[in-house]
Design a protein that fits this description.
- The complex is a heterodimer of chains A (388) and B (201).
- By secondary structure, chain A is mainly alpha-helical.
- Chain A has helices at residues 20-26, 43-60, 68-82, 113-118, 122-137, 140-146, 148-157, 174-177, 181-198, 204-223, 231-235, 239-253, 262-282, 286-299, 304-317, 322-334, 342-353, 357-370, 377-384; strands at residues 90-94, 101-103, 108-112.
- Chain A starts with 19 loop residues before the first helix and ends with a helix.
- Chain B has a single domain (25-197), classed as Mog1/PsbP, alpha/beta/alpha sandwich (Protein Transport Mog1p, Chain A), CATH 3.40.1000.
- In chain B, 22% of the residues lie in helices and 39% in strands.
- Chain B has helices spanning 3-20, 106-117, 180-194; strands at 26-30, 33-37, 41-45, 49-53, 60-64, 72-79, 123-134, 137-147, 154-164, 167-176, 196-197.
- The chains are: A mainly alpha (388), B alpha+beta (201).
- Chains A and B meet through helix 7, helix 17 and helix 19 of A and helix 1, helix 2 and strand 7 of B.
Chain lengths: 388, 201
């Protein structure tokens, strides 16, 4: 077991808990004072020291997104939510196409790019970050550390007990480390409060959940397999119920007239969106990806980039009829703003397979005109000489 | 969930693995000169290579010069329609695994390999793709870089591929960007130049 597993917090924290009874308590909730650094002689201090070492590793990691503007944007959201705790929290954007965020007890917060890609607006991103800040403010990891069941786990984290096999990846054992239902409920409650206080419409939190449920269902429909590999759903079995309760709680909080800040998120993520969409398709979870891309293309029918990637998802899935769906999506994308030059390459490849050489030449020509130094330019040029 | 079931599962998994590995795969030295890989690809070898024997994958051979995971040379010889870089079965979990189709173009094969090489979250980047002769065919050659997820080592790779009579022949060499990649590259290029497809026996 890797000590990083202990950072896994709630495994994946779109996790929105049962809020009905919590709401009454919520009205009396006020943010706690800043959390001082614990003495290294205490168990909590030991945990912080471990997390400090993890944070140093994270700073060196190739998977850390080193984009000052993006990091500053996400950190500013964290600060809006964390209020007085802002100076104690560091926000790291991590390149990983999965929906996840987590926060270590020492204030190291990770936000994965798969989560940012899925947020429809800044408020939805704030919903997940707010939930994480909720765990931090309530010091849930310390309670978990002192819980009898977690003591063995902590010993593993420290490497005191050998564990057979390599358990790669954060959250593999999320089940063993998951916060209790009560912790999730409290973090949800705090998260909604923080959202409202920061000027975000709390109802967006339940929309995050609705979208994820739709993705999961689409994946299940495609593979015929409820994805046991999903970090999120492995640890949160009553998702539908939670979504319903979260929605009710958010409606009770009101403030639905607040601006969810769509353009702000779109602008901050624009330079990265193509890379993240490429990473998304590399997961090869085409049910989830197609649900996501259907959502993106529906949200903005003039979004050429989303239309192109919808075509890519169909082409890569390669099920019955996907070739025609891909072609239609590419043709639509080619006429829209924001489509990458790769859409012409994609069209060229389809034309070549179908033996439509004049159309192939035109498409490849457009691709090469836009990307003369593309990594595959030499290969594409060789196709242009085919057929005389 | 507490850790006890996890440990039990780990123990059972270890036992299953031990049973499966009753005949463990072993590294065996490759004799320089002519040899036929997976009975389908004839190559000429110069230099010290070892190959993994007993992998139960008749269409895949893996070689190394310095030892894994420093450098690795993979051969996929004669993949037929519907086959993949790993053995796939007809089950939901295998559905997303990309499979070879004989109408694939060079880009499709690169993408199929990319999916394989980034399945664990490693970052794969295609650096160059160009036409090249391989296995008696007008094939292709591609270069890539990768950051391995497990240890974050930055590697470089070069591959030669061709579709010969509806079957895929692919040879992929990958090694850490620092020192090792360049060290064995000339030998790998020579092996690729020497490669000839053999018909099914």
């Amino acid at each position: 077991m890797d000590r990083r597993d202990f950072v896994g917090t709630c495994g994946c924290c779109g996790a929105m808990a049962l809020l009905g009874p919590a709401l009454r308590a919520a009205q009396a909730w006020t943010p706690p004072p800043r959390i001082p650094r614990p003495s290294p002689k205490t168990d909590e201090g030991g945990l912080w020291a471990l997390m400090d070492r993890e944070e140093e590793r994270l700073r060196q990691s190739s998977f850390l997104v080193r984009d000052g503007a993006l990091s500053a944007y996400v950190h500013a959201i964290t600060c809006r939510l964390a209020q007085a705790h802002c100076p104690d929290v560091r926000t790291y954007v991590v390149r990983s196409p999965y929906f996840n965020a987590n926060m270590a007890p020492n204030g190291m917060m990770q936000v994965w790019t798969g989560l940012i890609l899925r947020a429809e607006n800044e408020a939805q991103l704030a919903a997940v970050i707010g939930h994480e800040v909720g765990h931090y403010m309530a010091r849930h990891s310390v309670e978990r550390l002192r819980d009898a069941k977690s003591r063995t786990a902590f010993a593993h984290v420290l490497g005191l007990v050998p564990v057979a096999g390599t358990l790669a990846g954060l959250g593999v054992l999320a089940g063993a480390f998951a916060y209790s239902r009560n912790h999730e409920r409290v973090a949800d409650q705090i998260g909604l409060e923080l959202m409202a206080a920061a000027g975000y419409p709390p109802l967006e939190a339940s929309k995050v959940w609705t979208n994820l449920l739709a993705e999961l269902q689409a994946e299940k429909d495609w593979t015929g397999d409820a994805s046991s590999r999903s970090l999120l759903f492995a640890t949160h079995p009553t998702e539908k119920e939670r979504q319903t309760k979260l929605e009710a709680a958010a409606k009770a909080l009101g403030q639905s007239e607040l601006d969810p800040r769509v353009p702000a998120l779109r602008q901050a993520t624009a330079p990265w969106r193509q890379v993240w969409l490429e990473d998304e398709l590399r997961r090869r979870k085409f049910g989830e990806s197609l649900a996501l891309l259907d959502r993106l293309t529906a949200a903005d029918p003039q979004d050429g980039q989303a239309a192109y990637f919808l075509g890519e998802a169909y082409r890569l899935r390669a099920s019955e009829g996907d070739g025609e769906r891909a072609l239609a999506a590419y043709q639509k994308a080619a006429g829209l703003p924001g489509a990458p030059p790769e859409v012409h390459r994609a069209l060229g490849v389809l034309h070549r397979k179908a033996g439509r050489l004049p159309e192939m030449r035109e498409a490849f020509g457009r691709y090469l005109a836009a990307r003369p130094d593309a990594e595959d330019a030499e290969m594409i040029r060789s196709y242009l000489t085919e057929g005389g | 969930m507490n850790l006890k079931p996890v440990l039990l599962v780990a123990l059972l998994a270890s036992l299953v693995l031990l049973a499966a590995c009753a005949k463990p795969a072993t590294w065996v030295g490759v004799t320089p000169g002519e040899m036929v890989v997976c009975e389908r690809l004839a190559v000429r070898i110069d230099g010290a290579w070892s190959r993994l024997e007993g992998t139960q994958q008749p269409k895949h051979d893996v070689w190394t010069s310095e030892g894994m995971p420093l450098d690795q040379l993979h051969f996929y010889a004669g993949l037929a329609e519907g086959e993949a870089f790993v053995v796939v079965k007809d089950r939901p979990a295998d559905k997303p695994i990309p499979r070879f189709r004989k109408d694939m173009q060079a880009q499709d094969v690169v993408e199929m390999y990319e999916a394989f090489a980034s399945r664990d979250g490693s970052v794969f980047k295609l650096e160059k793709l160009a036409p090249a002769r391989f296995a008696d065919e007008s094939g292709f050659r591609f270069e890539f870089s990768r950051v391995r997820k497990g240890d974050e080592v930055r590697t470089r790779g070069v591959a030669y591929g061709a579709i010969h009579r509806g079957e895929l022949f692919l040879m992929v060499y990958e090694a850490p960007r620092i020192h090792y990649f360049a060290k064995h590259l000339p030998q790998v290029e020579a092996i690729a130049q020497s490669a000839r497809a053999r018909e099914k026996g």
